[in-house]
Amino acid sequence: MILNNVDFETYFRHYPDEGGFFGKYGGCYIAPELQKAMEEITQAYFTIAQSRQFIAELRRIRKEFQGRPTPVSHLERLSNKLGSVQLYVKREDLNHTGAHKLNHCMGEVLLAKYMGKKKVIAETGAGQHGVAMATAAAYFGLECDIYMGAEDIKKQAPNVARMKILGANVVEVTEGQQTLKEAVDAAFAAYAKEYKDCIYCIGSVVGPHPFPMMVRDFQHVVGEEARAQFVDMTGHLPDAIVACVGGGSNAAGFFSGFLNDPVEIYGIEPLGRGATPGDHAASLQYGSEGIMHGFNSIMLKDENGDPAPVYSVASGLDYPSSGPEHAFLRDCGRVKYDVINDEETIDAFYELARMEGIIPAIESAHAVAYGIKLAQRMGKGSVLINLSGRGDKDMDYIIEKYGIR
Questions:
Q1: Which residue of 94, 119, 250, 378 is most buried, as measured by CB atoms within 10 A?
Q2: Given 73, 79, 90, 101, which residue is catalytic?
Q3: Which domains can be identified in the chain, with CATH numbers?
């Protein structure tokens, strides 16, 4: 497939380029003292992580520890209720720790171990990346610091407890809005002081090169599995695929399996309470080009051009930018990005639970909500949704704020 001069048959050979750019997005905009650390990680990724020994060990871990491959499930009752379009979900909620995050965490921490590092640093919003990183650190015997905003700590108490049980040091961040953006700020500040002995394992396809590429590549297993499973199950490709997008790690991995196929691809951002600035986190819909956290992408800005305050009912999506590859795929037209608001998300959360016995993460419920709308619009065909995580972490918050419906 060739679209706007981008050849998707050879896409992964050319994107990102040597400088970490997807077109004009990406790069490595960091302080000089951290540049050497990024070069060390890049070199290690292109040597150690491509070796037969590393790949074999990661494959064994995915099979024996993570429980991969995760299945694809047909949502038969929900599909019948909606009409003739058939809905399916890729069950990353069944990946060990309950979300897709462990896919790149095990890869990143395995790389840190091969590099001789003693500690990993990470940030988290919804807590799933934090839990996955704490799990990986425990598995490999490394120290682990997790930076998390005070507001998210309140919302995601079960995941905070899990991180602590796994031996991680959870560092409460009290600056600014006390959510994901501030957690990333604090993690970068800590990394600048400790980079010789540790790695900052970024939790999405954001940050300076090589992280957008590296996280996407470790998450590619989701799209690779999903494509093969769907064809094996149905005999054909889905007509459309859908994933939620904050920073965009689950979507990047999921989409990567289908970029060269005749499949419609939808990335769904959080519209939150509405289109008013500060009430959403839909950067690709309402943002403009800008640099933050070491990369150039599309971001939501305030009147001074700084990252704007954002909001989403999903702690894992309330980030004022999106991964550079998502900005590139939007611009070249390969992926369509749209929005779902809080109310639609909570409705889909309960609908999937009641109709199919699956409680989704609030983040994933954005994709489910859009899949339902898409099915109603299409009239026929099939839609495959990436169910990026399970909703155990969200139940107390949902009941407190929305009640039992």
A1: 250
A2: 101
A3: 29-62+101-211 (3.40.50.1100), 67-99+220-402 (3.40.50.1100)
